[in-house]
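ARCHIVE CARD
Drawer: 12
Card no.: 0347
Subject: one protein chain, sequence and derived structure
Cross-reference: see card 0346
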Amino acid sequence: MTTADDSSITPTMALTAEPVAPNERLQVLDILRGFAILGMVLVHFAQFNPNRMSGGAIGAAINEVLKELVRGKAHAIFAILFGVGFAIQLRRADARGEDGRWRFGRRLLGVALFGMLTAALAGFSDIIRYAESGVWLLVVRRWSTRSLLVALLASAMLYEVWSAAVGGYQWATMGAERANEVYQSPPPPASGALRALDTEWAAADKGTNFLRLARVQLAWTVRSYRESFWGDWQRSRGDSGRILGSLMDTTLLTLLIGFLALRLGIFDRPEEHRRLLVAVMLVGATWWAVYQLKMVPTLWPAAWAIPSVRVAVAVQSGFGLFRPRFLGLAVAYVAGITLLVSTSRAWERRLSALFGAAGRMALTNYLLQFVAVDIVFGNYAFGAKAVTPQIGLAAALVVFGLLVLFSRWWLTRFRFGPAEWLLRSLTYAQVQPVHRPTARAI
């Protein structure tokens, strides 16, 4: 996630750590962040709604549209923009003649801490993955564009290649039948401590004590993190652990997409890349549609003749080139919005008015939308249990509208959103000025 000061790489930017002037910002990044916030609000209001299966055919249609067109895509857009933000920071550090590694390391730490906060608020720890996978950006930050393209391809394929290698080893040492049994077997039971936390979480979720629920959700996240550190590489439902997972997780792929897009100048000079944006938009939408129409199994039918199911799955997926489907649509959204912004100043102004302010305070609004969802559905607050998907959709749009109004109000008085200010202060290891000079004088 980029903060308010990270959205410009214009030639006139100052060689200091000061926030860039409004006319130096890359408005398309604010628009994309705001668009992602809208997607998160829509999805979370549907996901947390205990009555989400009601509403008849219309309710079912709303759920299906959100599932296929929004869920997962907003998080992917956030991750892409995190990669963009790192590339911008590197560009500014180079302009100042600085290394920037320690600064970005502190930023990753701050992102991880906010991830723990969202885990306590809502049991979601998605952005902790940004911090984990973001470490690898420090490794590739000086690589050439060609090397980054190779890294992007490798990141897309790495998990399935690794899985095929493990499957081949199991096949060779156990025989196909036994290897398939192990691969398809259920994962081992969680530890007694984690099962106890599961039980306590279920009880706290039905109760009315928010502090108890927050404590249990945070404790569960920490315990789950520790127990999944090495992963369960033998089974299909296991994972590769936190260390290898940060290298093979799709989060790194999305970070690299954003990093490379900024390197190519797509966001600061979109009008020069319209053909590329159209191509990316079409390829991304096609990538998603191939899975949506269940066309992939017909591409390599011979793969299922391989005795090892694990190897067959990897081959059938094109060694990961067609996974995950949500990323294709997320990339298409980013390319489409960027293309639209590049067509005219009028479109930039329209989209900026709708999404820009919310996008400048993306991290703050990311936290606030969880607070809003909790207030509506949490038993310690309103505890709404009769909200249909139709009402939930309307409520989500109202909440997003309120976030936009709040963001506009706040940014007329302060330089950053509250969360952005905290993250920036940690990044620079110094308390940052937050008041706008005009607001301070009043």
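Annotation on reverse: The first helix runs from residue 27 to 47. The chain is about 70% helix and 0% strand.
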